[in-house]
Amino acid sequence: MNKPAGRQDHSFDRFAGVALLVLGGISMLFPLFSSMLLEKAFALGLMGGGVYLMTTSSGALKVIGGILLALAGGNLLVNGGAGMAILTLALGLYFAYSGFTAYKKSEGNEESAWLRFNGICTLLLGVVALWQWGEATPTVVGVIVGIKLLLIGLYHNSKANLIVKQNAELNHASA
Predict the structure, then answer these.
(1) Nearest-CA neighbor of 114 among 157, 165, 168, 167?
(2) Contact, 87 vs 135, CB < 8 A?
(3) Exposure check for the chain: N or C terminus, fewer CB within 10 A?
(4) What residue intervals traverse the membrane (predicted)?
(5) Is 117 among the domain residues?
(6) Which domain does 80 fall in, by range?
């Protein structure tokens, strides 16, 4: 369906926002289950990266690296709970970086207040994950990821609301 010029579709942002809010709530309600799923997804990602390296690399060291990566992923997949410390470290570093970049992107942005809030919260989640790193529990990981999913869901819903508002202004101006 064609939209009039200047108008944007907000349906993806609304759908993504609601879905992420639901997933974030589930992750916070069932943190052990969600951390187990995250660990399995992390293991599958390592295995996939290893297979990719093995099949696309030329050179013995890269192929050996791919084999080791695939074996590490397979080990994490079989031995549940073994990768919680690695997962916590990876999430902590990612959240700290992601929070910092979101905060920096908030400067001069139309949605700057929301981006700044998201950046600060994500940076704090990264600090909490890194602080808990040596003694990380699956509960901490599940709750931290749940909070981040809630933040992303709120962002998408606020973006959808902004698009609806802009479309209404365009409709009012063209009437």
Answers:
(1) 157
(2) no
(3) N
(4) 15-38, 50-72, 84-103, 115-133, 139-156
(5) yes
(6) 20-170
